[in-house]
Design a protein that fits this description.
The protein has helices spanning about 1-10, 40, 100-130, 145-155; strands at about 20-30, 50-65, 65-80, 80-100, 165. By secondary structure, it is an alpha+beta fold. The longest helix has 30 residues, at about 100-130.
Length: about 170
């Protein structure tokens, strides 16, 4: 992709915006059941599981119009006062991005790219939870455009607190 973008620039296609996905991969994964095996036996049937999802994303400029975007999802499930499980995945992708103005490029890196990575991360989380002995858990879709807009609003107001979603 970087070669394609470079050759496009050599052929006079500099103003033509280009976006290409080069690779999608799992960068890191972690799964813990800190209270096993007791969590499977000592749970009060009236206790409802509480699930908290934390999102983080990071974009790194690798040069030559190539960016690594890492979407990190951390899912914590508690029952009563005990942690049932903690699942975390850092889903990454390499994206070739050229010909966009700075604002559009920032939007692509903070919204479009994480949106592409999310279904892969959701599948990894779902598999970890199921294979860890718990009922299936499917993360609902996330509107990364709205999250990016909220992040921009918070930056303008001076509140840079991380975004947390609760289920």
């Amino acid at each position: 992709m970087a070669d394609e973008i470079a050759s496009g620039q050599a052929n006079g296609q500099v103003n033509q915006p280009q976006l290409a996905v080069q690779k999608i991969y799992v960068k890191d994964v972690s799964y813990e059941v800190p209270n096993a095996p007791q969590i499977f036996h000592d749970v009060d049937e009236n206790d409802q599981p509480q699930v908290q999802l934390n999102l983080a994303q990071k974009a790194t400029d690798l040069g030559n119009n190539l960016f690594e975007v890492v979407l990190t999802l951390t899912l914590t499930c508690t029952v009563g006062q005990r942690t049932a499980y903690l699942a975390e995945v850092a889903q990454a992708g390499l994206f070739g991005i050229a010909g966009f103005n700075a604002d559009d490029q920032a939007g692509l890196l903070a919204s479009y790219c994480p949106n592409m990575l999310f279904p892969y991360a959701r599948q990894v989380i779902s598999s970890l939870v199921l294979e860890g002995g718990f009922p299936p858990f499917l993360l609902q879709p996330i509107n990364f455009d709205a999250l990016y807009a909220e992040q921009q609003r918070r930056m303008m107001s001076g509140d840079g607190a991380p975004i947390t979603l609760n289920s």
